[in-house]
Amino acid sequence: MSSSEGKIISVIGSGLIGRSWAMVFMSGGYRVKVYDNKPGQAARAIQDVRKQLEELQEAHMLRGDLSASEQLALLSSHDDLPQALEGAFFVQECVFEEVEAKQGVFQAVESLVGEDVILSSSTSCLLPSNVFARVQNRKRCIISHPVNPPYYVRLVELVPHPEMLPGVMDITFALMTSVGQAPVRLKKEIDGFALNRLQYAIIAESWRLVQDGVISVRDIDLVMSEGLGMRYAFIGPMETMHLNAPEGLEDYLKRYREGMRRVLTTFGPVPEFSGEAAERINKEMCEMIPPDHQNLSAKRERRDQLLMGLANLKK
To answer: Where does the entry annotate site (Important for catalytic activity) (predicted)?
Structure first.
């Protein structure tokens, strides 16, 4: 086992994100305690994790150096919070996206752990200053926002609480790197963090283009999957600009600055994402992929397999 042998991470919440985080940490050799306040829920989550790990091993897509059985030996389920937190150096909260629920979790957790235990939230856009508002010692509080599902998409946004000690960021960055994630550091908190601000900008303009009859749902998705997404899987927008002009970024700005500014001024208001437009777009989407459990599960499984293949290719 790696140098993580014996180190314990507590995962609070056994839903999709909690199970995926557990798999990530186990793949790095960490002991993982999964807690859920619904009796029996954490134990059921472990059965789901077992099934996933065995399928991944069979497909030669298992992360880490340990076998599925070796990873499963590191995992335990708990209905008792003090027991789930005992011995942990890092706590990853994964309850539903509601600020009062998260505040309550961290208030309870803080009363049961030592001062040096790092408190981390998986929230996708709630500000650290709100999530940790009921914590007394906020110097060890940080957001570790994964991309869903974190086992297959490695990016993690690390967002500091305004009172957080710099060392907490360093420890969390090292932890995420050690388990094969790709952490990025935000220098300060901002609504939506970085990923969702970019994602929402793309969603908003995609929605407007479909809503205004410029393009279909199918084709706007192809613009991303067969166009921008092809290069964004390997390089970001800044490097794209740098490479898309003969003499780099400065040359790109000279060539395209005015065109970018002109197009950006034509963007419409923030969509409502409701009403007639939402009904029409939803109808078109559901004709492409019927929203029943079987179809959605099959599409998600295909997504996860392709994401893992892409991750392996990028390595």
So the answer is: 145
Residue written as token pair 């490695």? 154
What would the two tokens of residue 187 be?
A: 């220098």
Distance CA 315, CA 303 (A): 18
CA separation for the pair 58, 64 (Å, rounded): 14
How far apart CA 125 and CA 121 sit, in angstroms, is 10
Residue 145's closest CA among 161, 168, 122?
Answer: 122
- Asked whether residue 308 is domain-assigned, the answer is yes
Order of all β-strands in the sheet with 31-35: 75-78, 31-35, 8-12, 88-93, 118-121, 141-146, 155-160, 182-185
Q: Considering its fold, how many domains does the chain have in total? A: 2
Nearest Cα residue to 238 out of 250, 221, 230? 250
Question: Are 108 and 214 contained in the same domain?
Answer: no
Range of the domain at 211: 195-314
Cα–Cα distance, 106 to 128 (Å, whole number): 12
Which of these, 132, 142, 34, lies nearest to 88 by C-alpha position? 34
The torsion angles phi and psi of 218, rounded to 5 degrees, stand at: -60, -45
Give per-residue pLDDT as tens, 258-313.
999 999 999 999 999 999 999 999 999 999 999 999 999 999 989 988 988 898 88
pTM: 0.92
